[in-house]
User: What shape does this take?
Amino acid sequence: MTELINDAVAYDVRVVEANVEPGVEYWKVIRVHHLEPAENYGRHHIFLDAIDEEGNRLFGARALVSWDGGAEKIVIDKPLGEPGANFPLWKWQVCSIEMLDLPSDRVENLRTDHPDEAPGNALFHHSFAITIQRTVAPLADPLADSVISGRVYGGQGHTLVLRGDEGNERLSEVGDDELYRFEHLAAGRYTIEDLNDGRMLGPVEVDGSNWVELDFPPIVTNQPLNRYLLFGPPSDPITQLHLSLLADHLAEREYAFGFTVEQALRAVNVTLVGEHPPETRILLETAGCMVDELPADPSELLAAIDQ
Assistant: This one.
């Protein structure tokens, strides 16, 4: 869309934009020009042109010139090579102009009581050329302010590729601090791959405005534990209840158990006991652990271990 050029601001001429919804056709003021003395030749007029989206004159387009106590319609009907319409500005008259038949921007405070300039522009002898274009209000750009960032353990200098639903890709290099960051993301689902070692994260969904922290877990090269039960925080009463219910089961099977993801990463199989954030499962599975779950409800938990 053509942007407004208004060199008549110094003469207090202003443009009031039409209030239109995206996708609606309307009239947009694209140029307001105060005629130079060599252009004006002592005239005192509004010179108007109305054009279509391609810049062609729209013969028959109508405009309304209004002032305190009166108004007059004018029509674009002049031949090419001169302004499409004109309207004389009289002494002390202060006019506004806007197009008709569609919503329209409005040019206000068109007047001639400006001081003398070089020959051609004098008090009450100033003119303005205005161009108004038929156009469509642009659709709002989709929000693209989401951020995905995090840490790549052991990934200094690695190259990450972010892939979106539509096949778009973006590259980022991991810094010496092992941190990465992808900014200005539109709503959608994304995966991230470490091109150096093949680690994958996601898919993760963003809404165009949120911030998601997503870490690549350490690469586990040695998993000495066959089974590990990962409980919630040890101080949580629910965790303490789960431990008491599973004490005999843990002793009988000689399962390792604990409360940290770092310990769980050493196991081939990890059982999540109770409720854990979704990121915990993603972290473990990305590291190559096989993950299952036991329910948080005590009665369901006992039924599950008896099976």
User: Anything to note?
Assistant: The domain at 146-213 is CATH 2.60.40.1120 (Immunoglobulin-like).
